[in-house]
Structure prediction request, 108 residues.
Amino acid sequence: MIAWIEAAEPADADRYHSATRDGATTDLGQDIAFTAPDHNVRCITDSKHTGATLSCLVRLTNPPPPPTAVYGEWHGGWVDFDGTSVQVGSAHGDPDLLSTVTARTSVR
Prediction:
């Protein structure tokens, strides 16, 4: 997965500094957000809380199951990429960062 990410052509990040939630657009400052055209992938950064990590909610065909003991809501399609490693699957409180946020600009 990391090789696939690194093989992609860099995008102009200036196009992705806002997000929309419940019809209201928010300027993200230095953070970014984007969605795939089919909305099967939604990603956002939150540098204040997670540093340089890119967090994505992805509709996976076969997401990992929740661990035996999990606190919060399990998202098998939650993917965190910190530039070095990828973590797939994560538990989050309600509401989590990606459940209701969609980027105003889609990656094409």
Remarks:
- The chain is about 10% helix and 35% strand.
